From TrEMBL:
<comment type="similarity">
    <text>Belongs to the adenylyl cyclase class-4/guanylyl cyclase family.</text>
</comment>
<dbReference type="InterPro" id="IPR001054">
    <property type="entry name" value="A/G_cyclase"/>
</dbReference>
<dbReference type="InterPro" id="IPR050401">
    <property type="entry name" value="Cyclic_nucleotide_synthase"/>
</dbReference>
<keyword id="KW-0472">Membrane</keyword>
<dbReference type="InterPro" id="IPR029787">
    <property type="entry name" value="Nucleotide_cyclase"/>
</dbReference>
<keyword id="KW-1133">Transmembrane helix</keyword>
<keyword id="KW-0456">Lyase</keyword>
<keyword id="KW-0812">Transmembrane</keyword>
<feature type="domain" description="Guanylate cyclase">
    <location>
        <begin position="522"/>
        <end position="649"/>
    </location>
</feature>
<protein>
    <submittedName>
        <fullName>Adenylate/guanylate cyclase domain-containing protein</fullName>
    </submittedName>
</protein>
<feature type="domain" description="HAMP">
    <location>
        <begin position="430"/>
        <end position="482"/>
    </location>
</feature>
<dbReference type="Pfam" id="PF00211">
    <property type="entry name" value="Guanylate_cyc"/>
</dbReference>
<keyword id="KW-0547">Nucleotide-binding</keyword>
<dbReference type="InterPro" id="IPR018297">
    <property type="entry name" value="A/G_cyclase_CS"/>
</dbReference>
<dbReference type="InterPro" id="IPR003660">
    <property type="entry name" value="HAMP_dom"/>
</dbReference>
<dbReference type="Pfam" id="PF00672">
    <property type="entry name" value="HAMP"/>
</dbReference>
<feature type="transmembrane region" description="Helical">
    <location>
        <begin position="410"/>
        <end position="428"/>
    </location>
</feature>
Length: 694
């Protein structure tokens, strides 16, 4: 009877182990799912803030330009010059040459984009001034199409060209500094684009009567023409824009006001590339923690993509095959192929996009746009005049891969345990009850949730082996749970890591000594002039709050431009561009960063009613970068390039940016520099320096 009772207890114990393992599996699955949703939500919120900050930044910069004396004067004088050309008219032979240029250069490109040949008459300008100015600044422009903006004076002797030679270099520099794709001025009375930087085929056309009267730029100009408010901004969503080859273009406009009346509209043309770069993390999905299948994308109110999904960039054949498999139309696929982008052409109508466009934030497992189960986090964006949603997702199969492995192990361990019980049940009547009582007690502790339990192995016979198998199974389950918990902590730690993502990944992989050489980067040092005297009588808390507010704004600008902040020392700020991920235009990005830092410092000083200026030094060249420390990591730079950048700052002029020859040589055609001559540099002697004018 005792043996039978013991056999029954062993069988019940085995069943308890299986049930407890199953419960542990489901608890582990729920914990991993929550961790993935938390990570996706954190990534979505970060990218949402980046996109919103991008629009807030360019809105502020466009308002500032629209209220400047330069833009007000240019608007008034360009209007008069264009009206003079309209009254003079354009000779028939000049009109013919412009028409021939459209037929030979513009219509073939539109045919490839549209998939059909459009009528030439649909795109020809209206009135005399557009023909005259497009002939001199487009048809006869000696520069290639992408560099037409370099022509300052067409040399035709007109009043317009005289004004253009004065204002165009200033407007071109403003557009380049801010990073606008194009900068245009519209006449609110005629709706005509009386000036553009890029000189595309919309130059001097009418948005009321011309070929682009139905384009989104016409809507932006019409709205801002009626608002005599210097703080007003009119933003229109992305749409395919013919003058830019059908690329997705959005427009942001601000009224130009003189004596309380709107005399013009300043229009910024926004390319989708900047937003796509933010949402895709410069297409570095793995470094941002999205694994092999994760990513993020934007969707507009028409359920069309506003940024490219990851699959489009990584494997286009697979991307188009997935679209076909979920029933996308041939027209949709053909449009994506012709335009070379899914933006404005791929329809993403999922549970996540519908909820987010309805203004609801949430997480859940859905069927994604590729037709596969997906874990997603979604929510709307707070951008005036735009109704966008952002979705961060990862395939369910990848997210639950550790759980699938745990399930296989549980089944294997459970099956082995049942075999052991069946094999030993025949001779349990001859076994000692003591070890079995220990095993039964251990099973009960395990089923009660004590996953660290173990039973003593008193014998070397089958009962001892059963006890050993039980201990091994418990240890294996405990280790699997530890792996899952550690994975969750690592993912959370990556989000909070202060190191650059690639460096953090190398540390996580176990690399102990990180030191790399970079052949070409750009380093900047910035220092607040007079800060020590300014804050000598301020309480310590106020000093910290003042510096934190300023440097936080620096950090936002650095993040927007893809620049790595290295450190701050007192009232000094150090940053680098071109590492740990190389960038071809690192010098241009850093100079833009320096300009923004000077403007930010001016604004911060005005907001706090103090007198304070910033001095910035910039240098390009090779550096060595590495991680110092064991418990508190610091990522730092060394080399002559760093030292000379520091000397450019310390030997610079307050409220200015001073650069070395390597920076000047790279950017002299993009920015305006004033030579300062050779200045004395500690440890270097005389070194040439230039001051950036902006």
């Amino acid at each position: 009877m005792a043996a039978k009772l013991f056999t029954t207890l062993v069988l019940l114990g085995a069943i308890a182990v299986m049930v407890s393992g199953a419960l542990g599996y489901f608890r582990a699955r729920d914990a991993l799912e929550k961790a993935v949703f938390d990570q996706l939500t954190a990534a979505r919120q970060t990218k949402t803030r980046q996109v919103e900050n991008y629009f807030r930044t360019i809105q502020a910069e466009l308002r500032l330009l629209a209220t400047s004396k330069m833009v007000v004067d240019a608007t008034r004088e360009f209007r008069t010059a264009v009206e003079q050309l309209d009254r003079a008219g354009a000779p028939p032979e000049l009109r013919q040459r412009v028409g021939d240029w459209y037929a030979e250069n513009f219509i073939p490109g539109m045919t490839r984009t549209l998939g059909r040949e459009p009528a030439l008459s649909d795109y020809l300008p209206v009135d005399g001034a557009p023909y005259d100015l497009q002939y001199h600044y487009i048809v006869e422009n000696p520069n290639p199409a992408e560099r037409r903006m370099l022509l300052d004076d067409a040399g035709d002797g007109s009043e317009y060209s005289r004004l253009h030679a004065i204002y165009h270099p200033l407007m071109r520099a403003a557009a380049t500094t801010v990073g606008f794709f194009d900068l245009m001025i519209a006449d609110p009375k005629s709706g005509r684009l009386i000036y553009t930087v890029e000189k595309e085929v919309d130059f001097t056309t009418s948005l009321q009567l011309g070929p682009y009267r139905s384009a989104n730029v016409a809507a932006a100009v019409a709205r801002c023409s009626q608002i005599a408010d210097p703080s007003a901004i009119c933003l229109v969503d992305f749409a395919s824009y013919a003058p830019s080859g059908g690329a997705p273009i959005a427009f942001m406009a601000a009224p130009v006001i003189a004596q309380g009346a709107v005399i013009g509209v300043l229009v910024a043309k926004l390319s989708n590339d900047e937003i796509d770069s933010v949402v895709t993390g410069n297409r570095r999905w793995r470094q941002e923690g999205f694994g092999a299948t994760g990513g993020a994308y934007l969707v507009g109110p028409d359920y069309l993509a506003r940024s490219g999904p990851r699959a489009f960039y990584e494997n286009r054949d697979s991307f188009f095959a997935d679209l076909k498999s979920v029933g996308a139309s041939e027209e949709e696929i053909a449009a994506i192929q012709r335009y070379g982008t899914p933006v404005l052409h791929q329809r993403i109508d999922t549970e996540a996009s519908r909820a987010a466009l309805a203004g609801v934030e949430g997480t859940g497992e859905i069927i994604g746009y590729r037709g596969v189960p997906t874990l997603a986090s979604w929510g709307p964006l707070a951008i005036s005049d735009l109704k966008w949603a952002l979705v961060a997702k990862v395939d369910s199969a990848e997210a639950f891969a550790p759980i699938a492995e745990l399930r296989r192990d549980l089944l294997l361990v459970g099956g082995l345990a049942m075999l052991v019980v069946a094999a030993t049940a025949a001779w349990l009547s001859r076994a000692l009850l003591g070890p079995l009582r220990d095993l039964t007690a251990g099973v009960k502790r395990f089923s009660a949730g004590d996953y660290a339990t173990s039973v003593p192995v008193r014998t070397r016979d089958e009962i001892g082996e059963l006890c050993s198998a039980f201990n091994g199974m418990v240890e294996d389950l405990r280790q699997k749970n530890v792996v899952i918990e550690n994975k969750n902590r690592e993912n959370e730690q990556l989000l909070l890591n202060v190191l650059p993502a690639p460096i953090a990944n190398r540390l996580r992989a176990g690399e102990e000594r990180i030191a790399d050489g970079f052949a070409e980067v750009t380093v900047a040092f910035a220092d607040l002039v007079g800060f020590t005297a300014l804050t000598s009588e301020m309480p310590p808390h106020d000093v910290v709050m003042f510096l934190n507010g300023l440097f936080t704004r620096f950090d936002v600008a650095a993040n927007d431009l893809g620049i790595e902040k290295i450190k701050t020392v007192g009232d000094s700020y150090m940053a680098v561009c071109g590492l740990p991920v190389p960038m071809a235009n690192h010098a241009e990005r850093m100079v833009r960063m320096a300009i923004r830092m000077v403007h930010i410092t001016r604004e911060h000083a005005m907001e706090h009613n103090v007198s304070m200026k910033l001095r910035v030094g910039v240098n390009s060249g090779p550096v060595v970068a590495g991680v110092i420390g064991k418990s508190k990591y610091i990522y730092d730079l060394w080399g002559d390039t760093v030292n000379l950048a520091s000397r450019m700052e310390s030997g610079g002029v307050p409220d200015s940016v001073q650069v070395t020859r390597p920076v000047y040589e790279q950017l002299k055609h993009q920015f305006v520099f004033e030579p300062r001559g050779a200045i004395e540099v500690k440890g270097k002697g005389k070194v040439e320096a230039w001051v950036l004018r902006f």
